[in-house]
Amino acid sequence: MQSELSLNFKEEQYLVDIAGWLQRTKLEKGASSLSIMQSRKSLLRAHIIALVLDADEIVNAKRSMKHAEVVIARRAVEEGRGLFVIVNKMDLLRGKDKSSSYEQIMEVVQQEIQTVIPQITGILVLFISALEGRGRTTVLHQVIDTYEKWCTRLSTARLNRWLLQKVMSRHSWKDQAAQPKIKYFTQVKARPPTFVAFVRGKARLSDTDIRFLTKSLKDDFDLGGIPIRIMQRAIAKKDGSGTSKSIHSVGRVAERIKSDKRERGDLVESKA
Length: 272
Fold this sequence. Notes:
Number of helices: 9
Structural class: alpha/beta
Strand order of the largest sheet: 1-8-2-3-4
Helix content: 40-55%
Strand content: 15-25%
Largest sheet: 5 strands, parallel
């Protein structure tokens, strides 16, 4: 796997398989406790998280994700990691007596996952069989694709064309004078993509506005499964030199944000 990934990246990539993330109890000691701690450290070091689910367990439990798996996914989002889901052991659901279960999983799993993890839209779900070797290449390609999206950098000119031509034309604030107006939109960081909206007026962007901008970025720039962060800054009145103080402030913030320069990429493949 490592050699195949190296064909697409200049730096070396690592795939880290962890045993899962169990809920720690007072009775857990020794190797079990250390395994949980190591799994959490691996997740914090990773760039891309592949959450592996068991198709047979999904059918028996009649739900896509157990509590421990939800914890992993939500923590990955909080930490700003790229995320996709793998449903393994699909070979167990083939055959006349299990065909309905196979079709049901293919239809409902992605919808259920999106309901459980509403913070991030467009999470891709891959259905594979490790026993038969089906889907292995697809998984590797998805690692690369998710990593490239996670590293996306969009130019300020492109973002502001997008803002004027697409976003402002389809959102309700364009016709309301009292609503905040985004005058400038720029990306200050990748991994994950982080943006700043410069807003003119006394009002600030609402949570609904931020969700709309986030969804628009994901849809228009193909960033599904990637956490997107949007900050906002008020545009202050220009001083005597004609320079806005708020833009200088954001420039300094952007420089601090860009300090994430880790060169090695990890994939944590989590099996809960």
